[in-house]
Design a protein that fits this description.
It contains seven helices and ten strands. It is α/β, with parallel strands linked by helices. It has one domain: Alpha-Beta Barrel (TIM Barrel). The strands form two sheets. The protein has an eight-stranded parallel beta barrel with strand order 1-2-3-4-5-6-7-8, surrounded by five helices. It has a two-stranded antiparallel sheet with strand order 9-10. Strand 2, helix 2 and strand 3 form a beta-alpha-beta unit. Helix 1 runs parallel beside helix 7 and helix 2 packs parallel to helix 3. The mean pLDDT is about 95. Pfam families: PRAI.
């Protein structure tokens, strides 16, 4: 079965178009105001309005207010929510859209316990633990820390790029991969050639 791909941190129409032309399955909009990849909900809505059918739009949050999630999801017409903070399962479950839960992985992280706690999530997104950053670090974590039989779909993130994505997929057998900094010229600005090369790395398997 083919591995799904999400390009996250989209801030421009041309970047979304390049990602879709390359064959991605989802694009992510960061609605955490402290992020250098933050996007205004109205701009996200404009970009989403030009996305063809069957491409998933994902909103990314870090410990948001309920009202902010509801507003951005409505304005940008999101299909899926992605929570990167310390949100509880009860918090994540209260919205109209389904959600995925991001876990920042380090030595000692019990991913099976997280999978049980967030059993209502559509998947677990595994990212690299960096104390000062909830995501988008550009660094990979030790893939050997991933259990072989994770009971939720695995979305692999953290330090993926065109040169290592094939190896990452072979090693971890994920449902999907998520990339942001690995296909950028600068933070929030994607590189069409890097996106294409990343997708080639995914498809060659």
């Amino acid at each position: 079965m083919s591995v799904r791909v999400k390009v996250c941190g989209i801030t421009r129409c041309e970047d979304a178009a390049a990602a879709i032309q390359s064959g991605v399955d989802a694009v992510g909009f960061v609605f955490w105001p402290q992020s250098t990849r933050y996007i205004d909900p109205n701009l996200a809505r404009h970009i989403a309005s030009n996305i063809p059918p069957f491409i998933c739009t994902v909103g990314v949050y870090v410990d948001p207010d309920i009202a902010w999630v509801e507003e951005t999801a409505r304005v940008a017409k999101l299909n899926l929510l992605q929570f990167h903070g310390d949100e509880t399962p009860e918090f994540c479950n209260q919205f109209s859209q389904p959600y995925i839960k991001a876990i920042r992985v380090k030595q000692g992280t019990d991913l099976l316990q997280y999978a049980e706690r967030y059993s209502t999530a559509k998947g677990l997104l595994l990212d690299t633990y960096v104390s000062s950053m909830p995501g988008g670090t550009g660094h990979a974590f030790d893939w050997d820390l991933i259990p072989k039989h994770l009971p939720l779909p695995l979305i692999l993130s953290g330090g993926l790029n065109p040169t290592n994505v094939s190896m990452a997929i072979q090693r971890t057998q994920p449902w999907a991969v998520d990339v942001s900094s690995g296909v950028e010229i600068s933070k929030g600005i994607k590189d069409e050639k890097k996106i294409f090369a990343f997708m080639q790395g995914v498809k060659q398997l």
